[in-house]
Amino acid sequence: MLQHLFKLIWNKKKTHMLLIVEIWASFMVLFGLATLIVVNVGNYREPLGFSYERVWAIGLNTNQDTTELADKVQRIAQRLNAYPEVESVSRMSSNFPFSANQMNNGIEYNKRNVLADHYVTDENFAKTLEMPVVAGKWYRHTDSVGKYWPIVINQKAKEGLFGDENALGKVVGERLKVVGVVDNFKAKGEFMSNKPAYFELVNAKDSWNNTMLIRVKPGTDAVFEAKVVKDIATMVKGWSVEVDYLTDSRKNQHNLVLVPVIIASIISGFLLINVALGLFGVLNLSIAKRRGEIGLRRAIGATGSGIASQFIGEIWVLATFAMLIGLLFAAQFPILNVFDLQAGVYISAILIAIAVIYGIVTICALFPSRQAALIQPAVALHEE
Amino acid sequence: MLTNYIKIAWKVLLRHPFYTFITLFGISLTLTVLMVLTSFLDHIFGSHYPETKRDRSAYIMQVVQRDSASSGRSTGPMSFKFLTNFVKTLKTPERVTICSFVNSSNAYVGSQKIKLNTKFTDADFWRIMDFDFLEGKPYNEQNIANGEYVVVINDDLKKQYFDNSEESVIGKTIDIESINYKIIGVVKGSPVTRPFSYADVYFPYTAPKSNYQQSGMRGGFVSVILAKQKSDIPAIQEEFQSRVSTIPLPGVENGWKYHTVEIKAEPYAENFIGTILDAGPGLKTVFFGILFFVLFMLLGLPAINLVNVNVSRIMERGSEIGIRKAFGAPVRTLVWQFIIENIFITFIGGAIALLLTSIVIYFINSSGWIAYADLTINLSVFLISILVCLIFGFLSGVLPALRMSKLTIAEALKS
């Protein structure tokens, strides 16, 4: 049966060429879109690793002020802590969660190198973001005695640097000592891939790393925010203060990912509808043209469903031809490791694309083949 | 004769509403997607309010510093001092403005917080950008020299801060980060997609917290150069590059030693695409690969579809062709008829696309998705896309028509 279908298609390869090209092109479009979606869904399913509701990032900019900066930053932190509306305050580098800023650094242990996101934070960071520490503990200022400086790494960085070994107490690079391990830390939002990261204790004396993360009590609104901004502005003349709610920044980060995906989906959706309609029309016509053949087959005893399955089988063979060509292209992505994605992503994208294509061609062939099945042999042969 | 063909075409279209629908759907949808995309690109890169002189402007957005081994690199906007020394003093341009890129801040009205995008500019900014002043006027060199605390705001901020009041707000003050500024002008806002001109509040560069005093090469400022005419831009670039080559190397910035400095004054589109192109050959191939792929799919898929549908549609009309041939119609006439038919349907599709595009554009403009969006239908793009559709319609119509017309009469009639 299958062999027969192949022969049927092969014999008319010239007329089917355009259909094959069309299905091939749809397959490629779907493959691209499915890759995009699989990557993002995969990322989204990884937990974020921290909580961001009710957390505000207060960015301080010293501008032209150059005197006693470290002191002033300390005083601001103390002042923030004193408000009854504030649950917790943490000082960190400008790359706070969901911000547009990024810092990364290569870290090394035993010749194993990992490029990790680098955050400079203080001892209250885990508490402010409600981040659980899975091994060891979060560093404190007292951990900085001696020649080593404390860091906390995330699970991904631990795997990269230490594999299955215990990470606690190990010295990374020349002066960084691991005191704790946290789970995920996806600072750019749910759609970010889970990357290695490490947190370094902020030096109380440095004058940069001037972002304050505060967790406020529920129900705190912009009136309190205005008060904080005003208080800070009177404490430190000439500094700029900027308040971001992490929930807002998260929305921005998400839009950066979602908007392109939505635009791509809309365009591909219309392309596929276009193709499906065309396919439907062409099939309808070609089946109408083969009325004589169908009548003859019915006359020698073929059932209606037999006829219908023949046409659906034909279009499946056609689609398979097209997708085999498509696979030649799509297979290059996992083989050549384009975009540094895991092969699994491409394979599931290919499978999704294949499933959707078979679905579309089946739907397109269903109606014309049902009509073909209804053809009465006497009528069809009489027309001949 | 022509009206006759069109009449026939119309009848044929009505006879098979379904195929007509498929064909029209394909043509109009492709044209719509294409036109909305180009109108969007035109919105981002073209010369529009308030950057109406963009076609004869060059933009300087960032300086790239590299160390000797080219392993470390530091990129970003420049300091006010550096731009004053190296750009403001150029001889060829008509005018040069130095302004900051978009900064942000907050203002508070009662329990309401207003997110502000702020910009520090010099007085020439208002001469290069063609802003519509709804009220008041811009600040000038005198205001700046006096160090006055004055600002220009956009109409959106006026609405939010002054509670939709209709009266003029000139002379009123606005509290931003605990400093009171006097409003001297209200402009119609610029869309967020134009980062060189977009802001809610415009400060003179001498206002507090602008950091214009910063020494060194890096800072928070960018520059726009306006040429007397478009053809002057290469001369300006040349003059600028010769100035840049006088920067003493190697230099030190914030304790980091750099050995090369790259800084370019480029037309707007190149300025933005350039950052992608500069990222290395790998990314460039990927970028153009994807661009080519998308364009190919966008145009190619519907075109193949159109050819496909047309081929079967015309093949179906074998008997009609047979009869016409039997009555002595030459091949030329038959082909001509199909061409006219295809042109006819393409134009109907084009008209639908025009309608759809204006609906989509109206929706984008009024949805507030991009504040102050001013997308317009681009007529030249429309004509080009109609032409592309015509070519495909032509090919898809002529090939089967030729094949048909070569059939012998008996064979054609038999089908």
Give a description of the structure.
The complex is a heterodimer of chains A (384) and B (415). Chain A contains twelve helices and eleven strands. Chain A has 384 residues and is an alpha+beta fold. In chain A, the strands form two sheets. In chain A, strands 3, 4, 5, 6, 7, 8 and 9 form a seven-stranded mixed beta sheet that branches. In chain A, strands 2-10-1-11 form a four-stranded antiparallel beta sheet. The longest helix of chain A is centred in the last third of the chain and has 44 residues, at 246-289. In chain B, strands 5, 6, 7, 8, 9, 10 and 11 form a seven-stranded mixed beta sheet that branches. A three-stranded antiparallel beta sheet of chain B has the order 1-12-4. Chain B has a three-stranded antiparallel beta sheet with strand order 3-2-15, with no helix packed on it. In chain B, β5 (103-109) and β6 (112-121) form a beta hairpin. Chain A binds chain B through residues 18-19, 21-22, 25-26, 28-29, 32, 61, 63-64, 221-223, 225-226, 229-230, 233-234, 238-243, 267, 270-271, 273-275, 277-278, 280-282, 284-286, 289, 339, and chain B through 18-19, 21-22, 25-26, 29-30, 33, 104-106, 108, 110-113, 177-179, 208-209, 211, 213-214, 286, 293, 297-298, 300-302, 304-309, 311-313, 315-316.
